[in-house]
Amino acid sequence: MTDGSPATARPPIVPPAALGEPARLRALADTGLDAVPDEAFDRFARLVSDLLDVPVALVSLVSADRQFFPGAVGLPDPWSERRQTPLSHSFCQHVVDIQVPMVLPDARLYPRVRENLAIDDLGVVAYAGMPLTDLSGRVLGSLCAIDNKPRAWTAAQLRTLADLAAACSSELRLRIALDSAQEAGRRIVQAHERLELVAGVSETLAGTLDVGTALRRLAAAMVPLLADWCLLTLIGPTGLPREVVSVHRDPARAADVDRFGELLRTGLSPESMVRAVLRTGQPRLGSVASLADVTRGTTHPEMSTIADRLGIASYLSVPMQGVGGTVLGAITLVNGAQRQQFDDRDLLTAVDIGRRAGQAVGNSSMYGEQRHVAEVLQHSMLPQLPIVTELELAARYQPAADRVEVGGDWYDAFVQPDGDVIAAIGDVAGHDIEAAATMGQLRNLVRGNAFGRPDTVGSLMSNLDGAIRGLRLPIAATATLVRICPQRGGVHEVTWSNAGHPPALVVHAGGAVEVLEATPEPLLGLARPSTRTSQSTNLATGDTLLLYTDGLIERRDRSIDEGLAELTDRLAGTDTLPLDELCDLLLASIDHREDDTALLAVRAR
Questions:
Q1: Closest CA to 98 of 112, 86, 87, 109
Q2: Helices 344-380 and 433-450 sit at what angle, rounded to 10 degrees?
Q3: Measured between alpha carbons, how far is 531 from 533 in angstroms, rounded to an integer?
Q4: Which residues, listed in sequence order, are joined to residue 129 by a DSSP beta bridge?
Q5: Cis omega before residue 224 (within 30°)?
Q6: What letter does residue 311 receive in the DSSP assignment?
Q7: Using one digit for the tens of pLDDT, what is the confidence trace for 12-27?
Q8: CA separation (Å) from 165 to 21, 45, 49, 87, 140?
Q9: How far apart are CA 512 and CA 575, in angstroms?
Q10: Distances (CA, A) of 14 to 19, 26, 93, 96, 120
Q11: CA–CA separation, 340 and 321 (whole Å)
Q12: Distances in Å between the alpha carbon of 586 and those of 25, 79, 570?
C-alpha cells in the first residue's frame, strides 16, 4: 500500500469437501503413485507439452492436503524436485471439486483462483485441466496444460487434452486394478504365512542355539506379519526382566523401540500387563489400548512418550513357558491405530507361538551353558605361544557361530633345542567333542614327532602319516607344518609342507602379499605311504607369515579360490598393523561364521 497502511492478508484457502471423500482417497491410494517420477505419466506430460506447445504440463493427483505429480514437465525449482505442492498452490483441486474441465485463459481474472499462490510461485497464468477419473467416475486429479502468459485455448487443443486425459485415466484404472489384484494376492499370502509361522516356529528357533539370536529370529518372523511391533522379554532368577528384544515394522523407529525395550527391563510397575503375565503365566488381551495403559504399567514416564511415537491401539501378551510350565519370558505384540485390533483368534495364535518359543528358549539356555563349557575345553587344548627374540607370534581361535560343539581346528608353535621354531596349523574333520579329542591327539603327535629332530618338514609329515597308520588312529585332517630358522638381524629361512590345507600367506614389508603355493598333497590319515615334499622361502624383517584354517575363507555362496582372493586383497597394505590388530581385523571381517577359524601369525623382527 502506498499510503503506509498494512497490506491486506490473503484469506486462508479452504480445501473443497470433495477432496476428503473416503472412497476417492482409497482409490487414490490404490494407484500406488506418489511424488516420484513415473515413466508412463511423464510420457503423458511430455505429449501435452509437445502437442499443445505449453512450457508446463502435469499429471496432478490431489489428496486431502496436497497435490503430487507422477508426471511432470517444465516445473520450476524447487517444485520440479519435490514433485508436489500444498493445496495453496493447487488449481487442480478445483477440477476435483467441480468434476468437469476447468479452462482459464488468464487465471488472474477468475475469483476462484486469483488468490492462489501458484500464480506467483509457479508462474501459472493460463490453465487448462481435464479430470482424471477411476472406473466409478471419481475424480482423482487433473491432466493439465499451463502457460506463464495469457492464452486463448483453441477447441482443437482442448480436444487433444481431453483425449490424452481419457488415456491417462485408463492408465490410472489399470494401476488401481493391478493394486487390487495384488492386494488380494497379498491377503492370501498373508494367511498362508500366518499358518506357516505357527507351524514353523520350532524350526525357526531350532536353527540356533544362542538365546539372543533365537529371540531376534522370532521377532523378525512376527513383525510385521502379526503386529506393528513386539517385545520379547526373558526373566532372570528374580522373576524380573533380564533381557528384552524389541522390533518395529518401521526401521526408522528402531531407536525408539530399542529404548522402550531398554526401559522395560527396569521400569515395570506392579500394574504392568507384562509383569502380570510373567508372574502368573496367564495371557492378557487388550483389544482396545491407549497411552494410559502404558502410563499405569511403568515407572518411567519416558515410555509413554515413546509409545505414542511407536503407536499403540491394541496389544496382547502371552507367556513363554519351558518344561513343566516354568515361565521363561513373555511375548508382547502391539498394533497401532492403522491396523486391525487383536482378538481372541490372535491370542490363541500367540499362545501357541509362546508355547513353542518357550521350549526352544529352554533348549537354547541349556545349550548356552554347554557352549561355554565346550569353549573352555577348546581353549584349554590350544597352546601358549613361545617367546622368540627374532620373531613375534600371535594366534586366534574362534568357534563357529550358533554352535555349541567344540571343533577340530588347531594351531601350535614351539622352539626346537637348536633354536628353530616349528609352527603348525590344521583342521580335523568334524565339529564335535570327538573331533576335538582327535585334534588333541594329532597336535600331540606333531609335537612328539617333530621335537628334537632335524628332519625336513616334508619328512616329518611323512613320519606323521606313518604314525597315524601304525597306531590305527581314525584321523582325517588337513595341516601345514613350518620350520623357521631365526637369524638375528638377518633373513629367516622358512620351509613348509602342506597336506591338503589352504596355502599360507606372506605379507611382505611394503604391503605386497605372496601366496605360498605348492603342489597339492593329500590329507593326513588318508594317503598311502608316500614321500611328502618341502618348499622353502624367506622372511625378511617386517614380513609376516600367516597360517589359517578354511573358516577364514570358505562360505557356502562362494568358492575357496574366491575367498582366498578376497583375503589376499584384504591383507594388502596391512604390513604396518600390529600383529594382534591384524589377527583381530581378520576375525572381524567374517560376516557369518559358518566354520571354526584358527589363525597363527609370525612376524620377522
A1: 112
A2: 20
A3: 7
A4: 102, 144
A5: yes
A6: -
A7: 667 898 999 989 999 9
A8: 22, 10, 13, 21, 12
A9: 8
A10: 11, 22, 11, 14, 19
A11: 27
A12: 55, 49, 8
Cα 359 to Cα 202: distance, rounded to the nearest angstrom: 8
What's the grid cell of residue 562?
574366491
233 forms beta bridges with 244, 330
The sign of the CA dihedral 386, 391, 392, 397 is negative
Instruction: Grade residue 478 by pLDDT with cuts at 50, 70 and 90.
Output: very high
The CA-CA-CA angle for residues 481, 456, 492, to 5°, reads 75
Q: At 495, list the grid cell.
A: 620351509
Q: Is the pLDDT of residue 434 over 90?
A: no
Please tell me the predicted confidence (pLDDT) of residue 318.
Answer: 96
Q: How far apart are CA 356 and CA 371, in angstroms?
A: 22
Contact status, residue 432 vs residue 455, Cβ threshold 8 Å: no
Q: Supply the DSSP symbol for 443.
A: H
**Cell numbers at residue 424, please?**
603348525
Total residue length of the chain: 605
- The interaxial angle of helices 22-30 and 155-206, nearest 10 deg, is 70
> With 0-12 CB in 10 A as exposed, 13-18 as middle and 19+ as buried, what is 41?
buried
Task: Give strand ranges (E) for 135-226.
Answer: 139-147
Show the DSSP H helices in 207-226 as ranges.
Answer: 211-222
Buried b (16+ CB within 10 A) or exposed e, 434-452: ebbbbbbebbebbeebbee
Give the count of alpha carbons within 13 A of 532, CB side only.
32
DSSP string, 445-508: HHHHHHTT----HHHHHHHHHHHHHHTT----EEEEEEEEE--TTSPEEEEEEEESPPPPEEE-
| Listed residue (201, 550, 213) closest to 403, CA to CA | 213
